[in-house]
Design brief:
This protein is α/β, with parallel strands linked by helices. Helix content is 19%, strand content 19%. Residues 1-21 form the signal peptide.
């Protein structure tokens, strides 16, 4: 074979081999890859590339702290309110403890700070949309709260049930707001409360007996529209300060009031519609400093047991239908005779003794508008006679002579006179911040 023929034959064989390899590569990519791998790697699976590593997901961020949760609640609340006094103008930044009206403290058994109290007194908050400003969204959202004081705002609606589960919630002041309806039942289920202030709202209906079984120190419900009789267990309350003034309570003052002898310090019943005669058990109130039943429909003589009110300083029976003589033993009480006050104005008393006359001259005892012959500014004889013509004796008249104590206090006792000024009368001012 000549040289040219041999060259042509070699070219044709080489071309055929290349065409065959191309066809195989096109029909089997795996083969191509395998072959390339054999060529590159030397023909073994031991040198196959490692599969890609799956990295674990990043850890979740830590849960927000108690302070951060409270901060978010406060800022959300601020977006819903009208703030006419710019109360919340410094509510910015990461630390809610620096917000106006916000109190912080260490959470019990922890080093963590928490919002322990809110004091929005006289802020004047209302709802930005013009609708009712509810307590949900603020009172129900900070479980670390120990107190909530919002005197003189425009809160309304129901009290959130969540407060019954707050472990350290001691003080609730919703005075001078827009609460309506009956006494808020959820207050009765709160086991930690010591201070309840619902005065100056529009609450109606009776006061539930459960209120007086609660371990409260202060009950202020004056200036509402509560009505009906006081519950029979009224005296079960351990409260020291009670203001029931300016409501529509009716019926007699319960004789169980004597059960509160160890705690009751000040009680205001003025400007209601109480009727009947006073129970002699009032004389058991050995710690009472203030007792005010003025402007009611009460009647009968002053019980002789009042001689046992050894701490009393302010005794007001004015503007009722009390009658008879004024007990000298009451005028001897050290808290009365030593810069105290005994007010019997506008009744039907007829007689005073020398010790009471001494208090009249010193202006400690006020007796204008009665039926006491010989004293100025008394009712007319005709008015007094008409009253006596229709007067009815007390059903408990037999008990009004009982004196359940031995009068052992010395005449120069100054303990009552040195007692602090009364706090309950300040509850009659709607915008009062705190009463204690």
């Amino acid at each position: 074979m000549d040289t040219i023929s041999f060259s042509v034959l070699s070219f044709l064989l080489l071309s055929s081999s290349l065409i065959h390899s191309s066809v195989l590569s096109a029909s089997s990519p795996e083969r191509e890859t395998s072959e390339i791998g054999i060529i590159i790697g030397g023909g073994g699976d031991d040198h196959a590339p490692a599969p890609p590593v799956n990295c674990p997901p990043p850890p979740p961020p830590p849960p927000p702290s108690r302070l951060e949760k409270a901060r978010r609640v406060l800022l959300k609340f601020a977006t819903k309110i009208n703030d006419p006094n710019d109360f919340t103008n410094n509510w910015h930044g990461p630390n809610p403890c620096q917000f106006r009206g916000v109190k912080c403290d260490k959470y019990p058994n922890s080093s963590e700070l928490a919002v322990s109290g809110l004091d929005f007194n006289q802020a004047g908050f209302s709802h930005r949309q013009g609708s009712n400003l509810g307590l949900t969204g603020i009172l129900d959202s900070i479980p670390e709260l120990a107190f909530f004081h919002v005197n003189s705002n425009n809160f309304s609606g129901q009290i959130p049930t969540q407060i019954t589960k707050y472990p350290f919630f001691y003080e609730l002041d919703l005075s001078n707001n827009k609460l309506v309806g009956e006494f808020p039942r959820d207050v009765l289920s709160s086991k930690q409360l010591l201070f309840v202030d619902l005065r100056f709202n529009n609450l109606t209906g009776p006061v539930p007996p459960e209120l007086f079984n609660m371990d409260l120190d202060v009950i202020f419900i004056n200036n509402n529209k509560f009505n009906s009789n006081l519950p029979w267990n009224f005296g079960n309350t351990p409260a020291r300060y009670l203001t029931f003034a300016n409501n529509k309570f009716t019926g007699p003052i319960p004789s169980s009031i004597g059960n509160a002898s160890k705690t009751l310090t000040e009680v205001l019943f003025l400007k209601n519609q109480f009727s009947g005669c006073l129970p002699y058990e009032i004389g058991f109130l050995k710690k009472a400093i203030v007792f005010d039943v003025s402007n009611n429909l009460l009647t009968g003589p002053i019980p002789e047991s009042f001689a046992c009110l050894q701490k009393i300083r302010f005794l007001n029976l004015a503007h009722n239908k009390f009658y008879g003589y004024i007990p000298e033993s009451v005028c001897e009480l050290p808290g009365i005779s030593n810069n105290g006050n005994l007010t019997l104005t506008d009744n039907y008393f007829t007689e005073v003794g020398p010790k009471c006359m001494k208090l009249i001259r010193s202006k400690v005892l006020e007796v204008s508008g009665n039926c006491i012959v010989g004293l100025p500014n008394q009712k007319s004889p005709e008015e007094c006679f008409k009253f006596w013509f229709y007067v009815k004796p007390c059903p408990n008249e037999w008990s009004l002579k009982i004196v359940p104590c031995k009068k052992q206090y010395p005449k120069d006792d100054e303990s009552a006179a040195s007692s602090p000024a009364p706090v309950t009368y300040e509850s009659l001012t709607p915008t009062r911040h705190r009463l204690m």
